[in-house]
Structure formats: structure tokens, C-alpha cells
Amino acid sequence: MHNPWKGKSLLSLADHSPEDIRYLLDLSHAVKREKRGGLVSRRFEGKTIALIFEKRSTRTRCAFETAFGEEGGHPVFLSTQDIQLGAKESIEDTARVLGRMFDAIEFRGFKQETVEALARYSGVPVYNGLTDIDHPTQVLADLMTVEEEFGRLKGEKLVFVGDGRNNVARALMIGCAKMGVDYFVVSPNSLFPDGEILARCRAFAEASGAKIALSEDPEEGLPGAGAVYTDVWVSMGEEAKSGERMRLLAPYQVNAALMGKTGRADTIFLHCLPAVKGNEVTAEVIDGPASRAWVEAENRKHTIKALMVASLSLPTS
Ligand code: CP
Ligand code: NVA
Asked: What is the per-residue pLDDT for 200?
């Protein structure tokens, strides 16, 4: 089968067609089946990946390290406390050097421009492991988890409750719009996604048949939701906004009463994690029977492995 990811970076799902995203999701399911069946090969043998982190991470770092390492590759973790990037050396120069030593680069940090510059100047595939405005590898795992649960994406409805303008909410809107999942944001008006990303996603949705809608009212947004998704109220780098967010978002906590508003018995709960239990979600919901947050976290590894296998053009089985 033609591999559309050969040599490609993943900076945002907005840059990729629904068919290319479908290719990665299918490969992710295959990679998970292999792992579950104990069939781990050595596809990354002799390969190296640089993992650059300006911000903290548990899942993203561990997904990249374990997926690459368990198949014989050598991941190198580089915190910006240790390397010259941004301090004594330009992004362009760092990218040029890393591109000569590594087969691929992952970047997590503040600016989307940094991950774009790494891709432009390194000449190797670059993966966005979260920036202030996007988190595409997260959304691959989210889509995979919805698909595992309901056996389809098109026609499903996902409602994001909380800070509708953050990186995860934006990335989800892109992924859902591309793949035909109806995407609703339930949040205070001041935290709705901005007009520019909304307009881009509406164009993707027109092509896929997805609906996109925003509401301040949980009663309006939640009915019919197959998945209710939330994220922290205060993202990394926004700590100064903590007090304001608590006030704004308290009525939007995902608790049993809010989950009940979907009117469906099979609604699942998703969270990219890390979670602040008692703020955006209650322990009852995230630790309860509707929660798929833990398998969603596991799926980070399978989707990230699929992405690396495809973009490094390695055997898919
Ligand atoms: N969901 C996610 O990206 O988690 P980490 O911040 O732990 O990587
Ligand atoms: N919105 C969160 C996601 C963490 C995975 C943040 O940026 O901190």
C-alpha cells in the first residue's frame, strides 16, 4: 500500500488529508495488535531520534522513548536546560546540526514557529509533541480511542468541555473536522476557539460532513455525545491565569450530572491527561466505568509508533 507519510513531518493535522490520517490510524491499530500479540520487531534498529522538551511531559516523552527504544532505536532526551537551543544558538543552526545526527526529531515547547523551523532546516521528519496552539499526536490517540469504542468516526459526536481555546481543544477540532466527527465546544464565550482556527476547521468540516458548534450551555451541547472530553483549566505556561480560569470554568466541571446530560448510556469520557481531579473532572468520572482516559494514554504509544514507522518508511508488518 502507498505510504503517504514517507519523509513527512507532523506539525499539525491541518497539513494532512483525511486519507493520510486514516493511513496512520489503520497502522496504529495494526501496531497495537502486534504489541498485544507479543510481536515486537526491530524496525528502529540503527536509528536515532532527538526528543526536545521545553515543557514537562510524562505520556509524550514515554510514548516516544518506549516505542522507539523497544524496537531497537536510540532515543536521546534533550531538555532545553541542557542544550543550546534558543539560548546560545538559533533554532536554524540547531536544526541543521540535529538533522545530520538524527533520523527524526520530536519537539515539545511553546511556539509553533519553533517546530516549523526545526522541520524546515533539519531535513528530517519532525513531530510536534505539543506547542501552545497544537497537539497533533494527542489527537491521533483520541481518534483511535473513539474508533476502538464505537467502530467508526464519521457521525460520532465529541463534546469538548472546558478551555475551548487551548492547544488540545484546537487540535481536536482540526482532527474531528478532518475525519467527520461532530465537534462541539461547551465553554464560556471568552474561551471559545478563535475565529481563524474556527474558519479553517469549518472548511475541513464541509469536506468531511462534520458539524462544528459552540455553546456556553451544557444543556445545549451535550445531548447525543458519544465522547465527552476535557483538559486542564490552566495549560502549561498560563499559570498566571489560574484564578480567573477557576472562576470561569467552575460551572463546566465534568461530573456525573454533566455526563448524564448526554442522554446516552454508552458515552465515554476522555482526557489527554495530566488531570486535576476535583477541577475539570471529578474522580468519580475519570476513575469510573465511562472513562477511557487510561487506554487513551496507552494509545499515545501505538499512534506515535505508527507515525514514526510511516514517516521513516519502515516495514508496516
Ligand atoms: N497528554 C500529554 O501530552 O501528556 P504529557 O504532558 O504527560 O506528555
Ligand atoms: N493543555 C495542556 C495539555 C497537556 C498535555 C497543556 O498545554 O498544559
From this structure: 98
pLDDT (0 to 100) of residue 285: 98
Is the separation of the CB atoms in 135 and 102 below 8 Å?
no
Assess whether the C-beta atom of 235 lies below 6 angstroms from ligand 2. Answer: yes
What CATH class has 138-297? alpha beta
Q: What pLDDT score was predicted for residue 312?
A: 98
> How far, rounded to the nearest angstrom, does the alpha carbon of residue 229 sit from its chain's CA centroid?
12
Which superfamily is assigned to 13-134+300-311 in CATH? Aspartate/ornithine carbamoyltransferase (3.40.50.1370)
- Positive/negative CA dihedral, 220, 209, 203, 11: positive
Q: Length of the chain, please? A: 317
Cα(130) to centroid of ligand 2, in Å?
8
Closest residue to atom 6 of ligand 2, CA basis: 235
Ligand 1 center–CA 141 separation, angstroms: 12
Contact assessment for residue 212 and residue 205, using Cβ atoms and an 8 Å cutoff: yes
Looking at all shown ligands, the one closest to residue 134's CA atom is 2
Measured between alpha carbons, how far is residue 12 from residues 53, 73, 235 in Å?
17, 25, 19
Shortest CA distance to 149 belongs to which of 284, 302, 23, 291? 291
pLDDT tens digits, residue range 233-284?
Answer: 999 999 999 999 999 999 999 999 999 999 999 999 999 999 999 999 999 9
pLDDT < 50: residue spans in the chain: none
Q: Is the pTM of this model over 0.85?
A: yes
Identical fold for domains 13-134+300-311 and 138-297, yes or no, is yes
Domain ranges (residues) in the chain: 13-134+300-311, 138-297
pLDDT of residue 76: 97
